[in-house]
Amino acid sequence: MRYKHIELLPNIEVIAKEYASGCSLTKLAEKYQLCRRKLSRHLQYLGVHINIDGQKYGHNEIFFDVINTEEKAYWLGFWYADGYITPDSTVVELTLAEKDLVHLEKFRDIISTKHLISRKEVKLKGKVFIAYRLLITNPYIRNALIANGCVPNKSLILKFPSEEIVPKSLRKHFIRGYVDGDGSIGCYLEPMLRLSFSVLGTKEFLTSIQDVFYEEILGYTKVTIGTHGGIFQFSKGGKESVIKVLSYLYDGCSVYLERKRDKYLSALANLVGNNQLYIAEKIGNPEIGNPALKVDSNILANVND
To answer: Would 70-154 and 179-294 be classified into the same CATH topology?
Structure first.
């Protein structure tokens, strides 16, 4: 599927025929003196399926070449939030808290890597926390992430990806991935039901997220971007406002961090439990029906980052 027009290589159809006849991507790149990643992108835009079987280290190297699916957009957003790109080597790293080990394993399986996930201890403010780390040594994957805006030392310079990188139709999946990494959802029961939503990042990046929300969420009002420990942050409060944002991000999605989506479902469950079903109905996606009526009653509330 093509989302963004690019000027294809003039001899791409000839190259595609050679690729279909069994010539490898690496050999074709060498033959025509092209960047292997660029060649892969152009073949995929032409509709050619790129075979990943038998690649060195078992990596699905082309996963981030073209962001043209919900899954790819989501994981790029997640890497924007939690990924580490080494500035002077071919290593990329994804480290998550112990409670998110299953999520880390999901990405490991998608990327088709045989690397083991290692356990590590992280010391923070005098306490020791258990985390799990996936290290991938692969220059192709590293360069693809960088080309798509996930750059080294990104915490102070991160920018929202252009439409050429993440098509407009996939922006909410990218944002959900980022929120699952660097966002917080709160559902508080005492003394009364309160909901909160916040995201950390650079001011420019957060401004772009709010621009998308303003464009795509009916009635969204922008809030001031403040600072939190030297990092920029914006926060939303109010039951209806928060539910609108979470509904936009999580309704109908197929890839997500379960504990974050459970907080959204918990918020809906508690709106129903507090006789505030009208809010859930007001923002319910008509294509899905009333999401409040589909909430698992066993989902726990009052779970916060």
So the answer is: yes
**Neighbouring-strand partners of residue 91:** 137
- Candidates 3.10.28.10, 2.50.20.10, 3.30.420.40, 3.40.190.10; correct CATH number of 179-294? 3.10.28.10
What pLDDT, in 10s, does the model give residues 262-289?
999 888 887 766 555 444 444 444 333 3
Sign of CA dihedral 144, 260, 96, 84: positive
Question: Which runs of consecutive H residues, i.e. helices, occur in the chain?
Answer: 12-20, 25-31, 36-45, 70-82, 101-110, 139-147, 171-182, 203-216, 239-250, 258-273, 277-283
Buried b vs exposed e over 69-92: b needs ≥16 C-beta within 10 Å? ebbbbbbbbbbbbbbbbeeeeeeb
Amino acid at 291: P
- Tens-place pLDDT, residues 174-206: 999 999 999 999 888 777 788 999 999 999 999
DSSP state of 192: S
Distance, in Å, from the CA atom of 236 to the CA atom of 242, rounded to the nearest integer, reads 6
Domain ranges of the chain: 12-51, 70-154, 179-294
Beginning with the edge strand found earlier in the chain, give each strand of the sheet holding 194-201 in spatial order.
Answer: 183-188, 194-201, 231-237, 226-228
Alpha carbon distances (Å) from 193 to 18, 20, 37, 291: 62, 59, 50, 18
Name the CA radius of gyration of the chain, rounded.
21
CATH code at 70-154 = 3.10.28.10
Token pair recorded at residue 43: 């073949």
Q: Which two tokens stand for residue 85?
A: 């790109």
The pTM of this model reads 0.76
